[in-house]
Amino acid sequence: MSAEKFTEKSVEKTHAPASTDAGGPARPGRRAPLVIATVAIVAAIGITVAVGVGDDGDKAPAAGAGPVAVVSGGTDPAKAATLLDRPFTKPALVLTDTKGEKYDLRERTKGKPTLIYFGYTHCPDVCPLTMSNIAIAKKRLPRADQDKLQVVFVTTDPERDTSAELAKWLPAAGDPSFTGLTGEFSAIQAGARQIGIGIDPPKKEKDGKVVSMHGAQVVAFSPTTDQGYVLYGEDTSVEDYAKDLPKLIRGENP
């Protein structure tokens, strides 16, 4: 009998100057994520899992209102990668890159191993950590494989994350080869939903703190099918990426 696992969806809620939560930080300087789904195991039933959040950030879209991920029964819970039996189609996003030029995501990454992440440059923890982990793992690859891998960072805070801001932040947080994209928030939000990532517009509270909520998954797209068939959560380590990247670049299951 096969077993299936609900995908873990985490949404990052960041208060600019905050420090730790009541139970202490999971990592130095790290804010705790809001986990809006738990792991469940069922037998011999095909489960469809809606991925994303509603306006309140605490509930999934109604049936048929958003993308659906079917988690592979062969997924090893000890692995960082979550394999999808029903992959995501690459978002039809046409945004602006760090050079201020139009960037057609589907066209520019067609046939290339691609990692896509939605985040923002003012994030104090999860976003820079994710970019750094991928960058370190990428540097361990042979040069030919480094050149093949596409890493795309799409801002969830386009009002502040201009092309120039992304051009400054990405090399420091990750790697100069990473692609940074900005544009209209409505287009970005729609594109994120196409691959199961829920994001809300950044909000400023009365005390001036900026609160941003967004899904923290990295979605890996195959170079052979251009489908998003693997999910990585925010706790994925450098070693996890270093182990999986060679297979992702070949379009294989990690």
Structural overview:
This protein is an alpha+beta fold. The protein has 6 helices and 16 strands. An 8-stranded mixed β-sheet has the order 5-6-7-16-15-10-11-12, sandwiched between helices. Strands 3-2-14-13 form a 4-stranded antiparallel β-sheet, with no helix packed on it. Strand 11, helix 4 (163-173) and strand 12 form a beta-alpha-beta unit. Helix 2 crosses helix 6.
List keywords for this structure.
254 residues, 26% strand, alpha+beta, four-stranded antiparallel beta sheet, single chain, 6 helices
Topology (elements, then pairings):
Blueprint: E1 3-5, E2 10-15, E3 34-35, E4 41-43, E5 49-50, E6 68-71, E7 82-89, E8 94-96, E9 102-104, H1 105-108, E10 114-119, H2 126-139, H3 143-148, E11 150-155, H4 163-173, E12 179-181, H5 185-194, E13 203-204, E14 210-215, E15 218-221, E16 227-232, H6 238-250
Parallel strand pairs: 10-11, 11-12
Antiparallel strand pairs: 1-4, 2-3, 2-14, 5-6, 6-7, 7-16, 8-9, 10-15, 13-14, 15-16
Helix pairs in contact: 2-6
